[in-house]
Design brief:
three-stranded antiparallel sheet; 114 residues; six-stranded antiparallel barrel; 9 strands
Length: 114
């Protein structure tokens, strides 16, 4: 088992190309569901939100090369899915809209684990 310096906490690594958080245990990867990220976006004159940059929690920044598609991610949920190109690979970037109880926030972004 790979562990951190204090021998009690498993190491976590971020795969930059596939946006996967890995918890490494003897070479076996257990993937978590989502990673919340900071996204820089532009808004056009019609109000369409165009994501441009993704910033990982550790500060690394990735440019979104293209937005290929946009769709609601699930019926009845406040969730949108953007199909984006990052580092030459197609990924899904999700925007989780805040409900009416959070009127001062629009929502937050996350990527799903592979």
């Amino acid at each position: 088992m790979m562990q951190s310096a204090n021998n009690n906490v498993p190491l976590r690594q971020v795969c930059l190309l596939c946006f996967a958080h890995y918890e490494l245990f003897g070479g076996v990867c257990f993937l978590s569901d989502r990673v919340y990220v900071k996204v820089s976006s532009d808004f056009d004159q019609t109000g369409y939100m165009q994501p441009r940059l993704i910033t990982w929690p550790d500060g690394r920044v990735f440019r979104i090369q293209d937005v290929r598609a946009f769709r609601p991610a699930a019926s009845g949920r406040l969730l949108d899915c953007y199909t984006v190109i990052v580092c030459g690979k197609e990924k899904h970037l999700f925007f989780e809209r805040a409900g009416e109880q959070h009127s001062c926030r629009l929502g937050r972004w996350f990527v799903e684990q592979a």
